[in-house]
Amino acid sequence: MGMVDLEKTAAAAPAPPGGGPGEQPVRRGSDAEGCLAVAVRLPVRIVVLVLVVPVRLVWDALVVAGRFLRDTVLRPVGRALGWLGRAVFVWPVVGLWRYVVVPLARGVGWLGNVLLVVPAVWVYRWVLTPVGRGLAGFLKGVGAVLAAVGRALYAAVALLGRYLVLVPAAWLYAWILTPVGHALAWCGRGLLWCLQGLARGLGLVVTGVGAVLYWTARVLLVLPALAVWRWVLAPVGRALAVVGREVGDALGHAWRIAGHISLVVGRFLAALVRWTVAEPARWVYRSVLTPVGHAVRDTVLRPLADAARGAGRATRQALASARLSVRQARADVRRMLFGEPGRARPVDRREPVAAQTRTLEKRTGRETSPPVRG
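-> structure tokens emitted (374 positions)
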């Protein structure tokens, strides 16, 4: 693998411009990094594979055990606990809400509507609304009067302010404040020119001092730090990055290889358990237990079941005979004590009974009254 990588790296490296066929290409940082990766890759992968295979085997065993525990223990226990929680907490709360809280809330709502909302609506409609309309009309009239008075006062105050404040203020601004402001502005421009000259001088001084400090710091700090970074820290960082990348790749390859090994070991253990436990148990069940069970069923259980069914039929017949004898004895006793019961004469359903026959004295729905003689 290392030779293949070296050949690929050498083939992919571009030839230097202007070089002849006999000139050797200059080794770059990527080539050195490739050599370091090739030198580190194989031993790191071997060591990581040796360390990762037991961990992957233990991990797969724990995964299988966890799935078995989830399917056989945790899921049934969770379902039982869920059903118990619903039976203990949810169903009582739902019943309390449905059959106690909701009817009580409806009753309280109806009572609040009758005692609060309806009187409040009546008071608002028939008391507050007329009173509010009357107050609004009154306040509107008062506001109109106050607005007229305010407009008159505003006109008077504006006239007084114009001749007492604005005219003197305009004269003061035009003949006093403006000349004084111009003089102060001229003095400020002169002072600003002086300050600008002083600032330029200070800027030149600061620039010179800053340049000296910059070059001093560059020579004493930046250039040594740049040299340490370029010639020490960058190569060490590249080497550590290569080692870390190779270790990560080795861990990935080792984890996948360990997964295949774990799969093979699991299949071997499953086949071993199947051929040592499951198949013998299946053979014993099919070849020994099933014939023995059929023989026991045909020779013992089926005759016992037939005998039990015959005994049940005999018992039911005996009980029926006993009930019939008791019923006949009870009829004989009743006949001796009360005599033969009278037989009812059969009535022809086509002939109406006496209570339903129509006569001259009775009519359906009303009684006859005697005739009135004229």
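The beta strands are 362-363, 366-367.
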